[in-house]
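Data card: per-record layout.
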Amino acid sequence: MALTICTAQLNVIVGDMTGNAQKIIAAARTAYENGARLVLTPELSICGYPAEDLLLRPAFIAACDDAVKMVARELAGLKGLHVVVGHPRGGSLRRKSVEVQMRYNAASVLCEGKVLESYAKRELPNYKVFDEYRYFTRGQGTCVFQVEDVSVGLLICEDAWFEEPAELARVSGAQLLVVPNASPMHVGKVTERIAQMAERAKAVNLPLIYAHLVGGQDEVIFDGGSFAVNADGSLAARAPAFCEDLFYVQATPGPQCFQLSGPIAPDLSDEEEIWHALVMGVRDYIGKNGFPGVLLGLSGGIDSALVLAVAVDALGADRVRAVMMPSPYTQDISWIDARDMSERLGVRYDEISIKPEFEAFKQSLAKEFEGRAEDTTEENIQARIRGVLLMALSNKFGSIVLTTGNKSEMATGYCTLYGDMAGGFAVIKDLLKTTVFKLARWRNENDPFGTGLNPIPDRIITRPPSAELRADQVDQDSLPPYEILDAILTRYMENDQGIEEVVAAGFEREVVERVARLVRINEYKRRQAPVGIRVTHRGFGKDWRYPITGKFLA
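The structure for this 554-residue chain is written out next.
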């Protein structure tokens, strides 16, 4: 007889233990009514992931313990239902400046009001966005529990990337592996996950179910897409990505091992995956933090256009406001295209000229600047005036400012502190400029959230990019062509290649050294940038921890 297993692919909120517990309870009750006798929730589903230094607070751990008891108590009457919940457990010893961790990244098996088993994660990731050594102690032992006639081996996330935990579960009698996860997405991660889990299943000759978190948490995105693989490594089932879902898998006894089956959601293209990640990132950051809406400076350029389209798909037109702030150097086509796009998407659109403020600043500084030609100082003044205006509107009406800078600009410092960097959330912070263009073209041809095709006027995509802070300015006055710049950044910044390696790949030494220098000297700007959505394997955030003061040039 087949066992029905439900993966509750949930979008939880860090620190909302009561709300998260209620969400788990509701999912488990629905799953039980639909015949499931095993319900899997994601890694640390009780408290959310990553909880960071909240995990160091005893009251936080106590609240997690209470929430686990709440789930067990509320589901006690569902005979035979086993629910796997993720939560931190244990304590710590504090000696003045030293924190000795005794906490564990755990998952417990709840059934009929009791905690049957509790398992602590053995392999703790401590790279890229992960720093679990800071919070957790490695677990020991294995966890194999019975659901009806099936022996289920429990692992947690990173455990399944290593041989020993799965092999120990197999030796202990497991017939099926279940793996709660909270694995931040980046482009290409889906393929990597499935391939790795397929290898693990084949290595121990056991089917495996990967239960994944979904939702945005500050800079990281969890993409869902929970899945199951059979013992031969074949994909047996996959949940939809970027949405909450109760995902059912059937485990049927076979001649040699259990066979898993269920629906298989379609693959997403890279552009579709990025778009959904950006939309989820904006929706959850705004929603979970309680902002009534967003506003942004709409310049008539490609970056702000893309951010506007993402914001409308995430929040709806009624919660998005665009502000065009022309300067003496703003071309007519910029405000014409900005108006056009705002009309296409149906957002509130306002124009506030910065000419009076710009002239006032120049007049106030005339004596100080006497005898000096205009340069980037005057360009930055314009950007900072715009930042002041947007932040004033944010303060008055409560909406958060979305910044519009991209990864190429963040890498090279082609951005203004307290100007275009002023705001609360950086939507395209992890998109290289060439990716911005690709995504804009993709969005014009696709309408994933029903807000309309072709939201971005074609001229915005085809005209040469310009900050429009001086006469006849284009980005390539200050930067290499984006195709070259982004290729160098991919190698140097994202993949840690040294200057010699990049030059050997065919790039001009002078250009490579210039880009590397710009990356190094602009760390101080990036430290002051707002948090932004991570969609690559190496973003400017938790992935990137470089000193501001330093001389080493890789």
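Known properties of this structure: The radius of gyration is 26 Å. The CA atoms of residues 466 and 473 lie 6 Å apart.

See the next section for split statistics.
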